[in-house]
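Usage

Read records sequentially. Each one opens with the input sequence:
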Amino acid sequence: MSSSSRGGHISGLRLERVSASRQFAEGRFRNTAPVHPGIQGNPLPLLGEYFFGGAQRTPPGPLPLENPLEAWGRRPDTGLRVTWLGHSTMLLELDGARILTDPVFGERASPMSFAGPRRFHEAPVSLDALPELDVVLLSHDHYDHLCRPTIQALAKRRVPFVTALGVGAHLEAYGVAPELITELDWWERTPVGPVTLTATPSQHFSGRGLGDRNRTLWASWVLEGDKHRLFFSGDTGLTEELREVGRRHGPFDLVMLEVGAFHPSWGTIHLGPENALKAHEMLGGGRLMPVHWGTFNLALHAWDEPAETLLRLASEQQVRLFTPRLGAASEPLRLEQATPWWREVSAGVLAPGPVLGG
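and closes with the structure output:
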């Protein structure tokens, strides 16, 4: 693993800011409550599930992709539009601002170009085809959220970046100009054009190599415009701090929560569908969009299990889901039902499927 893949080294004024954080102690960031990421206890059952489990961890056919370029050429009628580009990468059009979240356009979520989790689908559009951006928002430094080739390409556009404490060292190493980087501690906020971005607590971890675990901070994010408010979880487990986020910043027009890459043996660092619904309630409700699924094989569950389970549970709990197709530029405030497009892949049919209540 090359140093260029791992990123940069924290030093100078950046190290001073990191060291001053309440979440930083003994050289590392920590969660408010203790967590235990990784395999706990006897790993043999998990290894058996990995090698002999029957789950279909990759799609049986090509995923349907839509091209958003025509839609991007006109403003959203409601002032809020979302284009899901895969995993946790979204182009958010919020009250006049364009925000790109956790952009991963590379072939693999890995420090290596020849190994590691490979995409199920191409990006619906190329990086070059993206419209002018107001800001790139990075939740934390894991490879499925911070992609070196993608950052290097975006750096040439001289777009501002907002991220959590310490992550700017990686961005500088990948060519982003220091004056374009804003790093926030939990509960700090920064204006970007007509919107305000606030870093909020999440329950996760960080690191891009063997020796840098928890050297940078991880965060969830509140995005506030003149008319609309959004919540983006990044990666997080279930934490009571979500109630405080909802109390301070809710209600939200759209809550984007991670639902994939979960397993009981992985501690309390990811939500999964059941805990995503609990987190959604703690945040105060609103339309719920599942993210962090459908692009990479990062877990032991079937590729579509997060969406399928969430759809069933959300229907039982009468939670409104927003499940846009990959690449579809959609206005969530205009949609009251969830479309289970992933079922078309299993059926081998890519024509529009039935619409189910969400």
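Summary fields computed downstream for this record:
- The mean pLDDT is 90.
- The longest helix spans residues 305-317.
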